[in-house]
Amino acid sequence: MLREDSLVQPFLFDDLDIRGSIVQINDAWRSMIAKRGYSPAVQSILGELTAVTALMSANLKQPGRLTFQMQGHGPLSLMVVDCTETLNLRGYAKTDAPLPSGNLGDLVGDGRLQLTLDIAGLDQPYQSLVPIEGDTVAAVFEHYLAQSEQQPAALWLVANGDTAAGLFLQKLPGADLRDADGWSRVTQLAATVKADELRALAPEDVLARLFHEEIVRVFPPRPVLHRWPADPEKIKALLRSLGREEVESVLAAEGVVEIHDDLSNHTYRFDADAVHELFSAPDAPPTQH
Carries keyword Transcription (predicted)? Predict the structure, then answer.
């Protein structure tokens, strides 16, 4: 029976100054990839990127909208995952050729990882662009976090067509003073986690199985969502901004104006009557010549 809950469960090793989170995305993940027709290889890699995006969003010091874009020259040329401060996720993958099996390096190829963080009150979003270094999504983000936050981090990620899940650990600045062996011990224990455990066990059961001899403080979980209903008014505003002449030229060439929102996975179609109504509405901008 498929699990329906989707959440991020934060926790802390009080005696060790090591923090962590478990993410399990079930119903939200299935909704996000519904009707996309992704192969198992794409589901696996995009699911891992989705899991780590939820983890990173939940751990932000200042709540904001976080977007990761992974782009390369392989058959899996683009992946984008976007997450709001309420952990409302959306994302998609673009493949340019039949996708073989392989690791991240084989499928994405030589590429880059872009982070965009939009925090309310800032004049413009913060952006960071780094090369993709590592053959797994976990390895890429471990390297990225070590460079950007100057603190070691460890990730274990799993995903298929039903669930995207992960375990995240990060060493805090005072960890070595609390227990010089703590980070090594905890990461060795975490490395024994099995994919099925991350996908199927409740977070508290995963923590009990891995760290039953450690003191772990568990915080309230945060739900993860995928709620992106169609927004036709936004698309109408976009078409109006293009102008009647340009929209009607597309209509004449194609017989219909069609726009697909890749991130939210909605398609909008405007036939001749809809285009006429669009530019005849009282709030429509005047036709420009």
Answer: no
